[in-house]
Design goal:
By secondary structure, the chain is α/β, with parallel strands linked by helices. Helices cover about 35% and strands about 15% of the residues. The protein is built from 15 helices and 15 strands. The strands form three sheets. The protein has an eleven-stranded mixed β-sheet, with helices on both faces. A two-stranded antiparallel sheet has the order 4-5.
Length: about 475
């Protein structure tokens, strides 16, 4: 039987309902693991351990007093963490922005409300990139998060704290947010599973910062987990309109995981992305996954059978919605930061912002001066999405690298300035994407693939990830070193 630090959330919940283990023992085991690894990882930035213990004792009483046949919440007693961007009542809610230092959330985000109602116990909030638009979990308030497989390397971003804690067994799952790869990049770098839902499936109410208008469809809240069997149950709990998010809508998600017959599956492996210099390890990860599915009977197309193009301009255009808050205003918490002044202060090491957000602000200022027809750009994007879905057909998935290489050293993500389009393209197309580890590369670092499907086909991408997990081994618990 798997230890408490290796079992999935689904397995832990079932064992607690059967009375085999007590919720307080489960929570205490994970708190001890957090306390063991966090001093070197810097992944959890604020805890609520005392409240979690009280909630675990209450969960234990509820289980013991349950009547025969009583249906208990599906996650009753299961510990988790939440990215600091996502509001957890009474916890810091700063997005790593200095102007918001000391801010606490006055209530729970919708997804947190739903997870609590399902019985989950939040241990604390995790580190992330300043303002969210970078692939490293680093900000001026909390510092940077280290990768448990190699402390000299990044855990990814922006949900790097989530990935690092899940990777070393400190929690069975964590809730991240993804507007350009912020769930999938940490999942890939840390060797865990992660799912970016179809655009508009999960309400983003209570997330900071919040895109404007239709750009909200790019932002997706979703889980990172030890094991892919947890992804669909968690998604069912999180998904569905809440009456506040103006773009969220209902998608059909079956109550039970649908059976996936590999012989009916079509696979489009994509080994290259225009503008990205793919390392051999990234290509080999896609090939390894394709071979595993082909051995099960799936039809695998040639690597060049599908052309995706580049995602830089579509993603940028989709975020530049008229009337939306600009990044300079997000970093200033509603006040436009003086960009030239902050750039000069950065040169002498006195800016209160990281260098990367300032670069994003500069690019935004440059792009903002270019005339554009937003509505026409969105029509072209919809046409591109429709053409891709038609080409894929109803039974297909795409295998795509989540990054050009395994986790780079801290600050070395600059060496692949366009690598983020490997994930961001699927945000702008609103397609579901599941990351699953498929082995390791040089230096023992995890390698992974994205499994991408048509809109609303989240159950299929997760089911394919489960097949790959069974065939190739999946998550292995990391010991920080």
């Amino acid at each position: 039987m798997l230890s408490l630090l290796q079992a999935s959330a689904t397995q832990l919940a079932a064992r607690m309902r059967r009375g085999e283990i007590d919720p307080i023992d489960v929570v205490e085991a994970h708190i001890r693991r957090v306390q063991q690894v966090n001093p070197v990882l810097n992944a959890l930035v604020a805890d609520r351990f005392d409240q979690a213990r009280a909630e675990a004792r209450a969960a234990g009483r509820r289980i013991r007093l349950a009547a025969d046949g009583e249906v208990l919440p599906p996650l009753l007693g299961v510990p988790c963490t939440v990215k600091e961007f996502v509001a957890v009542q009474g916890m810091p809610w700063t997005a790593g922005i200095v102007a918001r230092r000391g801010r606490l959330a006055g209530g729970d985000a919708t997804v947190v409300q739903r997870l609590r109602a399902a019985g989950a116990i939040v241990l604390g909030v995790t580190n992330m990139a300043e303002g969210g638009l970078w692939m490293e979990a680093r900000n001026p308030i909390y510092g940077h998060t280290r990768n448990p497989w190699d402390l000299r390397r990044t855990a990814g971003g922006s949900s790097g704290g989530c990935g690092a804690l899940v990777a070393c067994g400190a929690v069975p799952f964590s809730i991240g947010a993804d507007i350009g790869g912020s769930i999938r990049i940490p999942a890939a770098f840390c060797g865990v599973t992660g799912h970016k839902p179809s655009g508009r499936m999960v309400p983003t109410t209570g997330h900071l910062p919040q895109p404007h208008g239709q750009a909200r469809a790019l932002l997706c809240l979703g889980p990172l987990a030890r094991r892919s069997e947890d992804l669909l149950p968690l998604l069912r709990i999180m998904a569905g309109p809440d009456g506040f998010d103006p773009v969220a809508r209902a998608f059909p998600l079956a109550a039970d995981e649908p059976a996936l017959e590999p012989r009916e599956l079509e696979v489009f492996p994509v080994e290259d992305h225009l503008g990205v210099a793919m390392w051999p390890e990234a290509r080999e990860a896609v090939r390894r996954a394709a071979r595993a599915l082909e051995a099960l009977g799936a039809k695998v197309h040639p690597p060049d059978a599908l052309s995706l193009g580049n995602g830089v301009l579509p993603w940028s255009a989709a975020l530049m919605v008229p009337g939306g808050e600009r990044y300079r205003e997000i970093l200033g918490d509603g006040r436009t930061i003086p960009l030239a002044r902050e750039a000069m202060l950065r040169v002498i090491g006195r800016s209160q912002h990281s260098g990367l957000p300032l670069v994003v602000c500069l690019l935004e200022a440059l792009l903002g001066g270019i005339p554009s027809d937003y509505e026409r750009a969105m029509v072209r994007l919809a046409q591109r999405r429709q053409a891709l879905e038609v080409r894929m057909g109803p039974r297909a998935v795409i295998l795509h690298p989540p990054w050009s290489r395994p986790a780079p050293h801290h600050r070395a993500a600059f060496l692949g300035p366009l690598d983020w389009v490997c994930t961001a393209l699927f945000n702008v197309l609103e397609l579901p994407a599941t990351v699953v580890p498929v082995g390791s590369g040089r230096h023992g670092l995890p390698t992974a693939v994205q499994v991408v499907g048509r809109r609303g086909d989240d159950a299929r991408t997760i089911a394919v990830a489960r097949l790959l997990e069974r065939q190739l081994g999946g998550w292995v618990m990391a010991e920080p070193r």
